[in-house]
Design a protein that fits this description.
Strand order of the largest sheet: 3-1-2-4
Number of strands: 8
Radius of gyration: 22 Å
Order of helices and strands: HEEEHEHHHHHHHEEEHEHHHHH
Structural class: alpha/beta
CATH architecture of the largest domain: Orthogonal Bundle
Oligomer: single chain
CATH topology of the largest domain: Arc Repressor Mutant, subunit A
Shape: globular
Strand content: 5-15%
Largest sheet: 4 strands, mixed
Helix content: 40-55%
CATH superfamily of the largest domain: Winged helix-like DNA-binding domain superfamily/Winged helix DNA-binding domain
């Protein structure tokens, strides 16, 4: 029996999946999908299209997870085809959704089209893990996020996504981020913006001078962190883009392109003096090197404070720039990472490349 025969099949590591993608391995059909961050589409691993770079790949174990992460289905390999072939109602409604992407779908729309709402719900839940109405809402939000990611305003994003007003769009995103819509300010002191990266979309919160938060959008702690920021800003947390966001987006692009190993974006810490000491120590670790919690405690002259160092590491809310991904287990194994171990692995691989390039330069006569 192979791992493919097991009923509780789990995705293997990224290297195995990437090799399967290159080989168009049919054993992963219906079990694994790849989201391509450079194009915004998701594919079967058997897709005949030109293969993406490994750093542009995100791996998923369900169609719903691909859609929730903001990816669109590939038109070439048609990853939704198995679902649409199995359930005609799915193909019919997806066709209708594509024809009217800005329509605010309701259960009444399904009834008017002659569908049984329970049948539709069960069919979509079975194949996507979400209802048709949930999928339609995510599609509208995705369109809005794309506008913001391209530099558009909240007004433009809301209109493109089919919302009746900027406030309606803000309210929907506020619900997604678990922030009360009324707490999102139209004149923010701290501005939230979306930044696309090679490892997926990130949320950045900044004022006009410094960065306060940078997290992957699917980070479970993000809603709690944003609520705390809103409290600290006395409710003045809302959408917007500042020069700090522009600098951050540029430096992240350079980091993933292989041309920048260190960041210059000014940061504001939200934590105790001890936490700040740990975060400074994290930033002092050269790209391409790692530390254990014990080694980090030694670095700050607190050799018995390994557990406290671990808590500070977990409390970091500025991902990548405060490189908590550089902390590994004492045995060299990857430890937990809020953005996902696959991202941690990829970040360490990128930084190892910087270290090799620096070593090669030093070795030159």
């Amino acid at each position: 029996m192979t791992l493919f025969d097991l009923p509780d099949f789990k995705l293997p590591d990224a290297d195995t999946l990437y090799k399967a993608l290159l080989a168009r391995d049919p054993r992963f059909e219906g079990r694994a999908w790849v989201g391509v961050t450079s194009t915004g589409v998701f594919c079967r691993l058997t897709c005949p299209a030109r293969k993406p770079k490994p750093e542009n790949c995100r791996w998923f174990d369900s169609l719903g997870a691909c859609i929730e992460a903001g990816f669109r289905p590939c038109k070439r390999c048609q990853p939704l085809k198995a679902a649409t072939d199995a359930e005609p109602v799915i193909e019919e409604l997806l066709t209708a959704l594509n024809a009217r992407p800005d329509h605010r779908w309701r259960e009444a729309d399904l009834t008017e089209r002659g569908y049984d709402r329970g049948t539709v719900r069960r069919a979509f839940k079975r194949h996507f893990g979400m209802s048709f109405l949930e999928m339609a809402r995510l599609e509208r939000l995705r369109r809005g996020f794309e506008v913001i990611g391209d530099g558009g305003t909240v007004l433009e994003a809301g209109l493109e996504a089919g919302f009746s007003s900027p406030s309606a769009f803000r309210a929907r995103v506020g619900a997604l981020l678990s922030i009360a819509p009324g707490s999102l300010s139209a004149d923010p002191l701290l501005s939230i913006d979306w930044i696309d990266t090679a490892l997926g979309p990130m949320i950045a919160a900044a004022d006009t001078r410094t960065l306060h938060l940078l997290e992957f959008m699917d980070r479970k702690a993000l809603p709690t962190e944003l609520r705390k920021l809103a409290e600290g800003a006395k409710g003045r947390l809302g959408f917007g883009r500042t020069p700090v966001h522009d600098q951050l987006a540029q430096e992240l692009t350079e980091f993933f392109d292989g041309t920048r190993s260190a960041f210059t974006v000014p940061l504001t810490y939200h934590g105790s003096d001890f936490y700040a000491q740990v975060w400074d120590a994290l930033r002092a670790i050269p790209a391409g090197e790692t530390r254990s919690y014990g080694q980090l405690a030694q670095d700050i002259a607190r050799p018995t404070a390994s557990r406290a160092v671990a808590r500070a590491n977990g409390a970091n809310q500025i991902a990548i720039l405060i490189p908590c991904h550089r902390v590994i287990g004492a045995d060299g194994a990857l430890t937990g990472y809020g953005g996902g171990l696959w991202r941690k692995q990829r970040l360490l691989e990128i930084e190892a490349g910087y270290a090799r390039a620096n070593s090669d330069r030093l070795a030159q006569p």
